[in-house]
Amino acid sequence: ALKTLCIDPYQYLIVPRLLASTIILPFLTIFSVGFGILGGYIYCVYQLDINPEDYMSGIRQYLEMSDVINGLIKSCFFGLILAWVGTYCGYKTTKGGARAVGISTTQSVVLGSVLILIADYFLSAILFNTGVS
To answer: Is the distance from CB of 29 to CB of 75 less than 8 angstroms?
Structure first.
């Protein structure tokens, strides 16, 4: 339908998703890490009776800025991979109805998971060799 209206489907459908996923996944990572630390604080202080100052000093002692930077760099790449695989598998689903959409969804989840594992390995090696980590 978009081709009939002389609208480039790649420009209209794929590019915004690639950009949005690449940009927003680092923010989602920051959000998740923040709530993970908050949840750990609540559990350790109120359930395990650990001194709040000990918990915060442990966070300061063991959390390194390179870990945060590496996580944000990786999350950008992972967002790009997820959007790329999802749009590729969705775009190539042209006929077959709901069954074909389900198959494409399963394929995109599997392919995305494998590509993220491979990308994580190479990104870890690159970041370690460049001295970021």
So the answer is: yes
Q: Which tokens belong to 9?
A: 């489907």
Neighbouring CB atoms inside 10 A of 87's CB total 19
Asked if 99 and 57 touch (Cβ cutoff 8 Å), the reply is: no
Query: Measured between alpha carbons, how far is 122 from 133 in angstroms, rounded to an integer?
Result: 13
71: number of Cβ within 10 Å: 15
Task: For 76-130, write each residue's pLDDT tens digit.
Answer: 999 999 999 999 988 888 788 888 889 999 999 999 999 999 999 999 999 988 8
Q: Where are the alpha helices (DSSP H) in 1-133?
A: 9, 15-46, 52-62, 65-91, 97-129
DSSP class of 5: T
Instruction: Please check whether residue 91 is in contact with residue 14, taking contact to mean a CB–CB distance below 8 angstroms.
Output: yes
Task: Copy the structure tokens of residue 3.
Answer: 């081709």
Tell me how crowded residue 131 is: count the other CB atoms within 10 A of its CB: 7
Q: Are 132 and 66 in contact (CB under 8 A)?
A: yes
Sign of CA dihedral 104, 109, 115, 116: positive
